Amino acid sequence: MSEFRIHVKASSEYDVVIGEGLTGRAGSLVREAVPKAEKILLVSETNVAKLFLEQVRSDLLKAGFLVTEYIFQAGEQSKNINTVSEMWGAMARAGFTRTDAVVSLGGGVTTDMAGFAAATFLRGIKVVHIATSLLAQVDAAIGGKTGIDLPEGKNQVGSFHQPAMVIEDTDCLRTLPEEKFTEGLGEVLKYAFIMDRDLYDLLEGYENKSGLQSDIETLTKIVRASVEDKVEVITEDEFDTGRRQTLNFGHTIGHVIERDSDFTKDHGVCVAKGMGIIADACLANGLTDKDTHDRIIDLITSYGLPAGDEITSEAAVSGAMNDKKKRGNTISIILVNRIGEAEIVKMTPDGFLEFLKRRDIT
Ligand SMILES: NC(=O)c1ccc[n+]([C@@H]2O[C@H](COP(=O)([O-])OP(=O)(O)OC[C@H]3O[C@@H](n4cnc5c(N)ncnc54)[C@H](O)[C@@H]3O)[C@@H](O)[C@H]2O)c1
Ligand SMILES: [Zn+2]
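A: This is the predicted complex of the input protein with zinc ion.
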């Protein structure tokens, strides 16, 4: 059984451990990450708990932890303050102290919320993420962004709180619903486009694209490369004031499409559309060559994702200007000029509109 470790040197240091069958070794890994903890709040949700909770719980008990479980209803709708409040209550009732810890077991909804509960309980206790979805493994569980949604918008409340370890068992990806797997691939493609030519070559040259989910060996390579990419970026810019913004490639327009659908469209699918639209605009504005453009569009569609959307340029710009990520009256747009190289460009709303509208002319 191979296991890879990627060391993160952020404001606190930790390992991301990637391999097959790691949930069966959760006890010893969590013990290594939080040696002083006696009590663990094991947070999971209804879908994931059915599949992996018993294995993780029994291994934590074997490692000598006192385990309190907290299971919530799976889905983004649960990502709110009430669920976090129940986690705080469970820890308070069980007499948690500052050396005790939270272990999350699930996708990005679980890691975001359990991370936030840990960041805030007793002003901050440790959290270990056991990430089970592709999106959580390549993105959400890494980098320390935690939070919840408000009725007014997604991820409106949160904090930076780096985990003590991230455990990524690639076997877990076998049970992921196909559309959730494909959605996670949207973020993987993003790393290939913005910074990782080798990952692009691996994905592009892979023969059996529709069968990737069952090829754990290749998936492990892909997860590892994606994690290395995200770690490189967040190590350089932990608090999202510079290079971390390149991770938003496709996201500015993607978020508008996602919101317009009342979040019925998957995030990764909307990001794929956003990346395609920006690639089209880059070509129309002479900022990229046809070969790079075609490579971006072809890779997105060859993995079963859409590389465009009906949204008008006007709707994309006005939606983007309402997004929380805009700074002042300009907006940072991530462009890919060549595969593996991203650029952050500040545009005014008018400039962004002109940039997008040129697609209609060419
Ligand atoms: N903190 C960050 O930096 C960051 C980055 C990206 C996304 N996010 C957040 O992550 C969330 C999306 O993550 P997600 O797509 O993992 O959502 P999710 O946690 O809802 O998981 C997606 C679905 O897959 C199921 N699932 C998860 N693992 C499974 C497995 N191994 N087998 C079978 N089913 C499984 C879940 O029950 C759920 O139905 C959003 O809330 C988003 O805001 C955070
Ligand atoms: Zn994303």
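The longest helix spans residues 216-236. The first strand starts at residue 3 and ends at 9.
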